[in-house]
TrEMBL record:
This is Uncharacterized protein. Residues 315-344 are annotated as: Disordered. Residues 332-344 have a biased composition (Basic residues).
Amino acid sequence: MNHLPNRVLKALNDWDDHQKDLEKTFQHSKMDAESVSLLRLNYLRREKNRIEKIARSDEMPFIVLLQRQIARLERELYPNLFLRVFMRLKDRWLDGPAHFSRQAAIKNANFNALTEQLRQSGFNYINGKLDQYLQDGSRLVSIPLSCQLNEVKCFTARLHFQQNIEGSYFLERIAAELLEKGGSVRSHSFELKNWPGIEATQMLNLLEGKAIKQHFLNAEGRSAERWLELGKYGVQSYHPDKPFDLHTILNELGIPLEDGRKIINQLENGHTVPVVLKSGKITRPVSLQADPANGCIRVTDVEKLNVSPIANQNSLRQKAAEEPGLTPGSLQKRKVSNRRHVKL
């Protein structure tokens, strides 16, 4: 039989983790002992107010332990008896009820924000069970998910949530894996701070070896973009250069501008896009896929055989003509050298 976790012990242990986080944050500045004690007192009071009225019988002895720690901190911080009594009355009749009301509003707003985040990232089908996973107040929560793509392929993901010192949860990372015939094809842990706004379909495309275009803020806080893919040695980054221009390449393929915008959006999200190319009266169904490593769009036929890596050859020829000794082939190799390994 599985025993329910002791929420009082978890609260005490969580404070130790919070204190370590504070020490890391303020390691280059001074935090006096009184400030730390005051933070600890406020934290323990909040936890007591949160747990006391819903505590189980097996947790009641630990509530007494929690109250003793609070009383000891009060004596240290408020040696004056009258001030100490005043602070206790204030906590009981003002801070406690206000805390319940504030926590209810914060919890509701936090839950709505997480629900919207999961909806936008493509994991909205777990929203009906999200509150069941988060209701016990654990500091770390993980939710396993699995999706059978076809008879042989399966996409799994484990969503890792973390609770901050205020009690709100945030999605920290998503550990995703692509399985084929029961064996792992590729896996990666997506830290949300490095992959802002990443969606489930983008993760799947990356695990299948495709590239996506990421929009992010650089060190100067300015909007930037880069192509990313999961390679043999981890995440590979390709900073877009002029020759790899999807607009120009699609135009050379004879794809209208309006259709091209839709296709570009799909290519930048790592999708393989089916199109019909026309040459006079001849039509040919093919699939397009962005290939930033080679600065081209990979074109395959219905049998998934490469037709030709259609790149912006006109731009390459023009550039080669401007620089003596260069050929389109050498420029193509130069673009491949734009590859960088990044830790994400």
